[in-house]
Amino acid sequence: MTDRPTPNRCAAARLLALAFLRPALLVAGGPARAADKLQEIRQRGHLIAGVRVDSPRFGGLSPQTGQITGFDVDIVNAVAAEILGTAKPAVLVPVTSQNRITQLNTDRVDVLAATLTISQPRMREIAFSDVYLRVGQSLLVRKDSDIAGYKDLAGRKVCTVVGSTPEQTIRRMVPTADVLTFNTYPECFLALQNRRTQAVTTGYMLLMDMHEADPANTKLVGGNFTFEAWGLGIKTGEKALVDAVNAALLKIRDTGLYAKLYQKWIGTAVPDDLASWYGMPAAEAARLFAESTAR
Question: d(Cα 73, Cα 55) in Å, to the nearest integer?
């Protein structure tokens, strides 16, 4: 005689069937999951960008509006407009030199527009767009200083941001320098003004901000002693997003918008050699940076 199914057995069978069917139902009836980061951005309707807030020229809080403004901010907003086909600005997330890579790799941001130097070590952590700005490491000193170049830092105190490319570079190029580090460049600038350090080193254009804040007592020296180029940081494996960002950067240049933003934030016309570095592949920029610091 065959056992008749009890109500409890029937309920258990229905639950078991639902457990197996649930994934299929979610795929068939639930919201479609984005195939990659680019599709996710387009489905969401806005780009999330990690930006600096400690550099008035590239990413800083406007004293007039309290909003984050700067060259990097305008660049990433222009990229967002090209990718999404709308004028909707990017959602901006403040990042620092210490946490920006983590913010990207944990999907808290889609891209980094954060004064990010393209280097070979970093390319093992994240992907990059093509070059959108060429800079170079330099020095800011007090007006009465006799420091004329990076070689003069031997045995002297120089300040930069902890975990930054300039820190790694100056330690490698001047092993006997006494390197003082802080979390932000304004702290280094204050240390220079208070004579706690004899020099500040970072990218030339970031140093311009500091010099313009106190031109009577500081000076830029040493020229650009490295080849350094910035790219937008993108999570490794997101080739579609890299390609879309690169296409957007070219469009920004070709429409003349890049020249306008450069004039607005850097204060000069675009360099005559723009064509030699704008849009340079990240791998080439990283190689040139490595060669310029191998001294």
Answer: 11
Boundary of a domain, candidates 221, 237, 266: 221
Contact yes or no for 159/181 (Cβ under 8 A): yes
Total structural domains within the chain: 2
Per-residue pLDDT tens for 4-55?
444 444 444 443 343 333 333 333 344 456 679 999 999 999 999 999 998 8
Give long-range contacts, CB 8 A cutoff, 24+ apart: 246-255: 246/129, 246/130, 246/279, 247/82, 248/78, 248/79, 248/82, 248/83, 249/79, 249/129, 249/130, 249/132, 249/278, 249/279, 250/279, 251/82, 252/75, 252/78, 252/79, 252/82, 253/278, 253/279
Q: State pTM to two decimals.
A: 0.81
The answer to whether the beta carbons of residues 220 and 204 sit under 8 Å apart is yes
C-alpha 208/C-alpha 219 separation (Å) is 9
- From CA 54, how far away is CA 244, in angstroms rounded? 28
First to last CA, the chain: 90
Q: Which domain holds residue 178?
A: 137-221
Mark whether 244 and 269 lie in a shared domain: yes
Distance (Å, whole) CA 200 – CA 160: 6
Q: Average pLDDT, stretch 222-247?
A: 96
